[in-house]
Amino acid sequence: MVKLKRNNTTVKIDAGELVGYEVNGYQFIHQKGSPGWSSADTEMFPIIGPVNEADFRVKTPKGEAVQDQHGHLRQMDYELEHQTDTSAVFAKEYESGTEVSNSKFPEKSTEEALSWPYDFRFEKSFLLTDDDLEVHFKISGEEGMPFMLGYHPAFKLHSKSPVILAKGKTISLDEVLAVGSRALQVADCTSITLKDEKEITIETEGFGNFMCWTEVRNMVCIEPISFYPYAVEQVNIHQGFQMLKDSAQFKVVLKPKA
């Protein structure tokens, strides 16, 4: 467990997963073991969304790749590369064609192993400042590699009537629940505020969109995404790819209100 500390703020990171962001005694992150989701955050890469209706196959310029929901990066382990009192850097490296065990097999998937026809390095870093928590992502690898990226943090809900503020509109928890597993799309948006007992704003660079998901009332996932996967049929998920040019960088800033 990596702990970052600054003033009255504590961040806890378990093998690259943000499992705690506590500011003045108030916990913003969904706690593992609580109802709703078994994780606290994860990354969706190199695809976002399910592919079960496409026989778990995704089209790439190098042929079809075997993928499962939200990609195979989440099935890999992070290595801690650097740590200070207020920062930490984690990375995953992948060699093209390497089979990665699929934790969804056999209960939720027919695919025992996943693979991708490109080399890549995926870096996730945390920086705790006086005012906020920055989460940076850097993708490097083969020129022209297709990919999409989503960040999937879960926020603990403390009140019965939290709201999400986005693009001048107010979204209720009931509206998110009503959409179900597809997740509520918030298109062309770089900043969302979750208003609960305390307030936190999620600001982003590089993603351009959000989707919001929950199936319970004690947490909500507010997910920056480069592409909303339900905009196309699963067999056409490749239409949401962007192409890597040397490297790509994305940023998420969690800004609690004082």
Automatic annotation (TrEMBL):
<dbReference type="InterPro" id="IPR011013">
    <property type="entry name" value="Gal_mutarotase_sf_dom"/>
</dbReference>
<keyword id="KW-0106">Calcium</keyword>
<comment type="subunit">
    <text>Monomer.</text>
</comment>
<dbReference type="InterPro" id="IPR008183">
    <property type="entry name" value="Aldose_1/G6P_1-epimerase"/>
</dbReference>
<protein>
    <submittedName>
        <fullName>Aldose 1-epimerase</fullName>
    </submittedName>
</protein>
<dbReference type="Pfam" id="PF01263">
    <property type="entry name" value="Aldose_epim"/>
</dbReference>
<dbReference type="InterPro" id="IPR014718">
    <property type="entry name" value="GH-type_carb-bd"/>
</dbReference>
